[in-house]
Design goal:
single chain; 336 residues; alpha+beta; BirA Bifunctional Protein, domain 2; 2 domains; 7-stranded mixed β-sheet; 3-stranded antiparallel β-sheet
Length: 336
């Protein structure tokens, strides 16, 4: 009898059809009142006691195989019926195309420009310690310039915080690499600022650093000149004296935007000039903090907010739009 059950198992395994009548005949043959399974169960009492365990396992295996096969045949039959009604030559539904975020678009443009003159991209953690975010950058404890970067602290004593600028990446890179150094450090930064159309507590920066022998302010100006021409198509710049704790001398960079439209008057306040970044020569104290000899090496650094550049390039008036994930705004960048 066990051999007969094996034959039934093989029959069930090899049975394939999508015809509903044949499926019903298969069900009646095995699961009907006078079907094979009921007949086998009826004969179970005739099986010798020493064979009942093996016989029972075989019966259960056959029962499960029949149930599984019936489920498969039903699914196959229903699917085939749907396909027969469908026009398989009809084009499928179009897939919605995504788009790159405008911040990523501009970030990639800036990176490509600086890569073309030898800069590499460096990265670092968004959660920083006091040394890399402040002290090594010539911002010791109680320095008044820290008040400009009212900070999100995670722990205190020792201070652990969300980085307030990507200058911390520069410190980490200089600690682990010898000059010449030529890097970009893009990424998110965090400051405790009131959210408005022009500011946000989260924004993106991209900073640059070049350290080598005999680097001068003239090299910095030439680099900035190249960058503004490539990104904005505007080559007229001016550099105004400013103050940053980690550079000396320091400057704010303005690009001449022009006064060709009402928008130009509005964003430049009628002057035609627009501030785009800060820069300067790396302070010797910063070089000493990372064990680079300031008597042998010098360098420059610069930094800008990516959102500010995006707002200029695409004439966007509210920085909050970058963080609201409004599909209507993002759809405008599908072709870029």
């Amino acid at each position: 009898m066990i051999e007969k059950i094996e034959e039934y198992l093989a029959e069930v395994k090899n049975f394939v059809t999508r015809d509903k009548n044949e499926i019903e005949q298969f069900r009646i043959k095995f699961n009907g009142k006078k079907g094979i399974l009921n007949d086998i169960f009826a004969r179970f009492k005739e099986v010798p006691n020493d064979q009942k365990k093996e016989f029972g396992q075989k019966i259960n295996t056959l029962k499960q195989a029949v149930a599984q096969k019936l489920d498969e045949l039903k699914t196959f039959s229903e699917t085939s019926a749907v396909l027969e009604k469908e026009d398989l030559t009809r084009p499928g539904f179009p897939l919605e195309l995504g788009s790159r975020h405008p911040i990523n678009l501009v970030r990639n443009k800036i990176v490509d420009i600086f890569k073309s003159i030898g800069f590499a991209v460096a990265d670092g953690p968004e959660i920083e310690d006091d040394w890399h975010n402040f002290t090594a950058l010539n911002l010791p404890e109680y320095h008044p310039a820290r008040d400009m970067q009212d900070t999100f602290f995670i722990e205190q004593n020792p201070d652990i915080l969300l980085r307030t600028h990507t200058s911390s990446v520069q410190i980490r890179y200089m600690e682990n690499h010898k000059p010449p150094i030529r890097i970009l450090a893009p990424g998110r930064v965090f400051r405790n600022e009131a959210v408005s159309a022009r500011s946000h507590c989260i924004f993106h920066q991209i900073e640059g650093l070049y350290i080598d022998e005999n680097v001068s302010f003239a090299d910095l100006k030439q680099t900035i000149q190249f960058f503004t021409t490539e990104l904005f198509g505007k080559s007229k710049i001016r550099m105004r004296p400013s103050y940053f704790p980690f550079t000396e001398p320091s400057a704010e960079v303005d690009v001449y935007w022009g006064l060709n439209s009402e928008t130009d008057y509005r964003i430049t306040k009628g002057t035609g000039w627009l501030e785009i970044m800060g820069c300067g020569m790396v302070d010797p104290a910063v070089l000493k903090n990372v064990n680079i000899d300031p008597d042998q090496y010098s360098g420059y650094a610069f930094g800008m907010g990516i959102e500010r550049i995006v707002m200029l390039l695409y004439q966007m008036g509210d920085i909050r739009m970058f963080f609201e994930n409004d599909i209507r705004m993002l759809d405008q960048f599908k072709s870029l």
